[in-house]
Structures are given as C-alpha cells and as structure tokens.
Design a protein that fits this description.
It is built from 13 helices and ten strands. Strands 1, 2, 3, 4, 5, 6, 7, 8, 9 and 10 form a ten-stranded mixed sheet that branches. α8 packs parallel to α9. The longest helix has 17 residues. It is globular and about 55 Å long.
Length: 321
C-alpha cells in the first residue's frame, strides 16, 4: 500500500509539473452590442495568444458599476472612464465617502467614448432643450449602472428635471436596456431617441442606420458649459460622415477609456497583460477603430488611479515612466 501511495503521489506531481494551471480572469466590460464589449473580447484574444494559461472571461458591465466590481475583486479587470475612475479612487462625487482603495490602473486612453444622443432623422426635436421640454417623447436610455445612464441623469439635473417629471408631467416613454435591445426598439419605432456612450464608430448605430435613418441631438454651447463646469465632461464632435447620411458634425461630450485592475492581481499577471497589449499595439485598431488613439508610451500619464506595480514594471523597462 505504501508503494502504491508513492506511485500515485509521484504521478500527481509529474502531472501538475507538466501542465500549467489556468488562471481565470474576469473582465467586466460594457453592455452587449456596445464598443467596450467587442474591445474586451478582441484584447482578451491578444492576451491569451501570448499567455495560453490565462482564461479570460468577458462579462457585461458599465462605466459607473465597474470600478466597484474591480475594487471588490469580483472582476479582476474592467473598463472604466477617467471621470468615474478618479471619483471612485478618491471617494468623491458619485462615490462620495466610498474610497476605492484597491482600485489600480494598467493604462488609459484606450479609446475616446462619445455620448451618442441618437434621434430618428424625422424626429420632431433636434436639441437637448427641445427634447427635455417636449411632450410624449419615446426614448431609450442605456441600462442603469452604465456611464451613459449616469451622464443622462446629470443632463437632466443640469436642466432642472428628472425621470418622474418627464414621465408624469410630459408623457415621456423611457425604456432602459442594452444597446442591442434599444437598437431593436429603434428599428421597430418603439422609441425615436436612443442615449448612450460608444466609441467611434458605434457598430450598433451603423446597424440602426441601415433600417431607419439616424441623426443626432446636438449639445449647444450652454449645455456644454454646464456639463463641463458641474461634472467635468469635455466637449467633442462626432465627425461628419462617421455614419452614412449624417453629413454634419454632431456636438456632444466625451470621456477616455481606462483599463482598471484589482490591486490583488499579482504583479506578474499584470506585467504579462501590459506587455501583450503594448507589444501588439498596432493590432488594436483592427479590434475597434476608436482604439487607434491608444499609445503605450503615454498610457500611464495622468492616470485617474495609481498604476499597478506590474504595469509600472513594464513601462519602466521600456523607459516610458
């Protein structure tokens, strides 16, 4: 019996020494059908190609919920937006009094995320003021917990209104859902407006535009001023012809995408992830056009939360720090 146990023990050691155990990493991204989800999936494939022992699972998430998921270790990686990542790390504004001490970053400016206030081309109202003072508006707003939905709440606040007022006093029909769900509702005429954040170009907007011509609700100078001074949103433009049939620039707001990571993830793992992303940087634009703005040489600059030591090690080796 002793000899048998020795054989079993030696066999087990040989088995485990010859096979690398997979490390499971959950990546909280964005809504199904949105740019963040496809960006996560594409980057996960690049990272797994270089690190076959990584098992990366991409799950839906949102800009305001993701910092907390990563901070708690529920997800090891997560997309965030510079504004919300900073607020979470410092425990201010949206995260008032709840400082996220375990939140770290790998880099930022993976893409610029633009607010898309989409309207049907023949919709009655074309400016934010007109929409929010209008009657019987049918609008789809991205799911609660997402950066887009929080941006919509702040726009309502800046214009002295809220969901209840719009529904009860102005007859609004407001649906919440993923981009895939809202796209279907837009195509079917259940909603005439859709609000959410996307990289450029948003594939779901391209799909919507094929079945029902789209336009944009523009942000006027007064709106942009209020949103910047109160919430730190930067003004931006969706360039003309980004979407067919839209021949003029659309005035809007934007934020920068940050890759967050839990402080509990090992330095070695984060080092390998950072190395894969940086050394395959040229492939990022093939995943999503909006990722062409990413530059590993500057990814750690002005980080909204501390850079993870594993990422800092790679940047230092390359002379980027």
């Amino acid at each position: 019996m002793k000899n048998l146990m020795k054989v079993i023990s030696v066999s087990s050691c040989l088995c485990f020494s010859g096979v690398a155990l997979a490390e499971t990493i959950e990546w909280t991204s964005g809504q199904l059908g949105g740019g963040w989800y496809s960006m996560s999936s594409g980057l996960a494939n690049i990272i797994k190609k270089d690190n076959p022992d990584f098992n990366i699972k991409v799950v839906p998430g949102g800009g305001t919920a993701n910092p907390t998921k990563v901070n708690r270790g529920r997800s090891q990686l997560g997309w965030g937006l510079d504004t919300f990542t900073f607020q979470a790390h410092t425990g201010t504004v949206l995260f008032d009094g709840k400082k996220h001490d375990d939140l770290r970053t790998i880099g930022m400016s993976f893409s610029d995320v633009y607010t898309h206030f989409i309207r049907a081309e023949d919709a009655k109202y074309t400016t934010i003021e007109e929409v929010l003072t209008g009657k019987d508006v049918k609008i789809g707003v991205i799911q609660r917990g997402s950066s887009g939905e929080q941006a919509f709440r702040w726009i309502l606040e800046a214009n002295n209104t809220d969901y209840d007022t719009l529904r009860k006093k102005q007859g609004f029909k407001i649906n919440h859902g993923s981009f895939s769900e809202l796209s279907s509702q837009f195509k079917d005429g259940q909603v005439d407006y859709v609000f959410g954040n996307l990289g450029l170009p948003g594939s779901v907007v391209i799909e919507m535009n094929q079945s029902r011509p789209v336009g944009f609700v523009n942000f006027g100078v007064e709106q942009l001023s209020k949103l910047y001074s109160n919430y730190g949103f930067l003004d931006a433009r969706i360039p003309a012809n980004t979407y067919s049939n839209v021949a003029q620039d659309a005035s809007t707001i934007k934020m920068s995408t940050t890759l967050m990571v839990s402080s509990k993830v090992s330095d070695d793992t984060v080092y390998k992830i950072t190395k894969s992303i940086c050394e395959d940087q040229n492939a990022l634009s093939t995943i999503h056009n909006s990722m062409s703005v990413f530059d590993c040489k500057t990814a750690m600059q002005s980080a909204p939360a501390p850079i993870h030591p594993g990422a800092a090690k790679y940047y230092s080796e390359q002379g980027y720090m």
